[in-house]
Amino acid sequence: MKFNSLIKPFQSLFRKRDNNVYKTSVKNPIFPGTYHYTDNNSHRHTLEIQSAFDLKIDRHSVPVQVKKTDRDEVVLVDNFGYKIEIQTNAGKPIKFYDESDNATYKLSLA
């Protein structure tokens, strides 16, 4: 019996893992668009979701990395390590959680 045939069932255990283990193969489950939300101080803000998860908040670009996508939510992490979660309903964003503010905001279409 050849050595390769002995180790073949175990090869997947030794393959290099993707550093982004939370990322799934689900395509962008949310529609790009412009949304409004109101913060806890009653200030109105704009969240722009562009293709490839390019985000802008109040016209300021927010570089993010995708950590998880599924049909109900998208989890992103900004450059400071804070989570940004976008909850969806039927593929449309309905809530926006910003870990840096520890707050969840309802989204409305702009």
TL;DR of this structure?
With 110 residues, the chain is mainly β.
Keywords:
mainly beta; five-stranded antiparallel β-sheet; 110 residues; Lipocalin; disordered N terminus
- Outline, from the CA principal axes? globular
CATH topology: Lipocalin
CATH class: Mainly Beta
| Secondary structure tally, helices | 2
Across the major sheet, the strand order is 4-3-2-1-10
The overall average pLDDT, rounded, is 80
Biggest sheet character: 5 strands, antiparallel
Terminus-to-terminus distance:
66 Å
Task: Furnish the topology, listing elements before pairings.
Elements: H1 3-7, H2 11-14, E1 33-38, E2 44-49, E3 55-57, E4 60-62, E5 64-69, E6 73-78, E7 83-89, E8 92-98, E9 103-106, E10 108-109
Antiparallel strand pairs: 1-2, 1-10, 2-3, 3-4, 5-6, 6-7, 7-8, 8-9
Task: Describe the structure in your own words.
InterPro entries: DUF4828 (IPR032254). This is DUF4828 domain-containing protein. The termini are far apart. It is globular, with a radius of gyration of 19 Å. 8% of the residues lie in helices and 45% in strands. The longest helix is centred in the first third of the chain and has 5 residues, at 3-7. The model is unreliable at 3-7 and 10-25 (pLDDT under 50). Strands 4-3-2-1-10 form a five-stranded antiparallel beta sheet, with no helix packed on it. It has a five-stranded antiparallel beta sheet with strand order 5-6-7-8-9, with no helix packed on it. It has one domain: Lipocalin (Beta Barrel). With 110 residues, it is mostly beta strands.
